[in-house]
Specification:
2 copies of one chain form a homodimer.
Chain A: E1 3-4, H1 7-20, H2 28-40, E2 46-48, E3 58-66, H3 68-71, H4 80-92, E4 98-101, H5 111-119, E5 123-124, E6 126-127, H6 140-143, E7 151-154, E8 160-164, H7 169-182, E9 186-195, H8 196-202, E10 204-205, H9 207-224, H10 228-236, E11 244-260, E12 263-272, E13 278-284, E14 286-292, E15 295-299, E16 303-308, E17 314-315, E18 325-331, H11 340-346
Parallel strand pairs in A: 2-5, 3-4
Antiparallel strand pairs in A: 1-2, 3-9, 6-10, 7-8, 7-9, 11-12, 11-18, 12-13, 13-14, 14-15, 16-17, 16-18
Helix pairs in contact in A: 1-2, 1-9, 2-5, 9-10
């Protein structure tokens, strides 16, 4: 079940993670280069399935926190995230047996790999978001009873805090976000310390391999001159996500975007190639809802990603601009992300949307 | 040298601490009631001089953090500050042998007494500010090389953070202030863990006894129908502060006040009783500078306090209002607060004032 990532894998993984980032999570590029650097230094990235963990092993979630726009301006050196892990280990009086991604989308697909490589521990094939989300209480770990506390947060100077909010993960987000802003808009965190048994119960399994698969699918479609969008749909069938399809195609005709409360928030308008319809996408770091002429066609937590209409490369929220020709791709979420408790935590209402959640595979049908 | 505080002492201490609060630091009343409650529960408040500490004993500074205006609205129960101490002790793996006030003015004159009483440790007769100041790097502890790190900060829910910024106490203020704001505008902190030897080297000694003396002086002047202002001047001669006098008397004719970045900031105008002169006082939680018709008559770190013209009771920044008849009392600071390093940290420039510091006892003479 376990396997070791190669340098070539990292490119596919970055592509897949950008797709699963649903427009947010930050460009995986910076993270990929830092993993490559670690590999060049002789470090290895070993991937293990949740089932390979012993029940009493200690697993810690690793991530960057902050607005993707800021992360692009304040580039990490690869050691901050390791330091964050070490601070939490020191606080707990115990070293981690493995790290697990907080989210499988965007830059945070790579950060745990840097940590795993540098700290010489395996990375778990799974995560707590199954995509990218803007806030750290939006993790299945918390949905199913794990506390984010204690959380370590560090900045580029090595300054740090250990935050404890008991079982209140919303409060943790509030405090950690406040420090992230005061740390200059991005920071590194180590959070949700848990046992192997807890990982098996609460993590979304297989998402690192999923990102790798989706990235590889896009690369091979390009190499083989086949339809990348159909290839994605085909590849998803045998994954826990099962279903994905092109929701819309057209040209970006308007983008509103700003930094609000530390998030990259706004909306994009896409006019169909035949100019007969318009899709509006609202984002808060990630794409949250897609409407065609006012009718919802995809809604969070299901995934909505803009892909370049020609290359099928994922386009982040930060990179969306007037004139881009895109196809909007939707992906259904696995069952663990669709329970009432999960939807309470990261469903539409959690983002201030009044529309009810509807499964992508049946919406409007 | 050591002595035990009585309930009666607390009233004098509160009066003296309000005076040393120089308009800020929060009303000591709430704190006094919490110390009285602890005493009623059988707890004792033992005061020891810095010299009574063993060189290798652990001393921790205890305080509330936040805007006085908010503290008045979010009243503590007396256990939050103890919890903050305990969090830091737990982090250090060692219990404190004594607590020391962060500041001797305002509410924070009382908070360490609550902690000392409940934790059954003595409180050191001294502090790190020699008055009240708005920011936590403004302590002689830091001026003379002690790090505020690690610092524990807790809210009323028991949620907490342990912050570490190495030797950068300005950064500590920045992070802790950010969390204080997200904790609702006030929080409890335990900070500047240090040895007995370090206390002896860096603390402003005798300030708890000073506050007690000044409060007792005002009470006795009232009981004996003598001039309270002259009594204060006389009492100060034999203290490390040596010098104090009435700087101005008149009626408050204008007050501008707001909450800016978590501080109560603004200015007050006082017209002399004969209407011939006007004093302007600028405050940022505490009174920072007093000018009479544009001429500086007192400037931080020397103390500037408004006293009721009739009762000589101290008036906090929050309570200053149009029509109050006041006398403005200035007090010189001890030498440890007047070194170049000290003035760099909490002299005029630290508050954005362009005027140079001048000793109160010689200013304008």
């Amino acid at each position: 079940m376990g396997y070791e990532l190669s340098v070539a894998d990292l490119r596919d993984l970055a592509t897949g993670a950008a797709l699963l980032g649903t427009g947010g999570g930050g460009d995986p590029l910076i993270g990929r280069l830092l993993v490559e650097q670690a590999m060049a230094d002789g470090c290895r990235v070993r991937v293990i399935a949740p089932d390979e963990l012993d029940d009493d092993q200690l697993v810690i979630s690793s991530a960057m926190m902050g607005a993707p726009t800021v992360v692009l301006e304040k580039i990490p050196n690869g050691y901050e995230a390791v330091q964050s892990l070490q601070r939490l280990e020191s606080h707990l009086g115990r070293t981690a047996d493995a790290v697990i991604p907080m989210e499988c989308g965007g830059l945070n697909s790579m950060v745990p790999l840097i940590v795993a490589a540098r700290a010489d521990v395996p990375v778990v094939d799974g995560d707590g978001m199954g995509r990218a989300f803007p806030e750290l209480q939006m993790e299945t770990f918390g949905v199913y009873g794990i506390s984010a506390s204690p959380l370590a947060i560090t900045d580029e100077h090595g300054y740090s805090a250990i935050i404890d909010t008991d079982a209140d993960n919303h409060r943790m987000e509030w405090f950690a976000r406040g420090l992230t802003i005061r740390m200059g808009g991005s920071a590194h965190i180590a959070e949700y310390p848990m046992t192997g048994a807890e990982v098996k119960r609460t993590a979304i399994a297989g998402t690192l391999s999923l990102a790798l698969l989706l990235g590889r699918t896009l690369r091979e479609a390009k190499e083989n001159h086949t339809d990348p969008f159909q290839a994605l749909t085909d590849a998803l069938v045998d994954t826990p996500y099962r279903y994905g399809r092109v929701l819309f195609g057209g040209k970006v005709v308007d983008v509103q975007r700003g930094i609000i409360d530390g998030f990259t928030a706004g909306r994009a308008l896409i006019e169909s190639f035949d100019r007969s319809q318009t899709m509006e996408i609202e984002f808060r770091n990630e794409n949250m809802i897609a409407r065609v002429d006012g009718r919802v066609v995809a809604i969070v937590p299901d995934l909505i990603t803009l892909l370049d209409a020609d290359t099928a490369m994922p386009i982040t929220t930060d990179a969306v601009r007037y004139g881009l020709r895109v196809r909007v791709f939707g992906i259904a979420t696995p069952d663990i992300m669709r329970t009432p408790a999960a939807l309470d935590t990261f469903g539409p209402a959690a983002f201030g949307l009044t529309e009810p959640w509807q499964p992508l595979e049946t919406i409007g049908r």
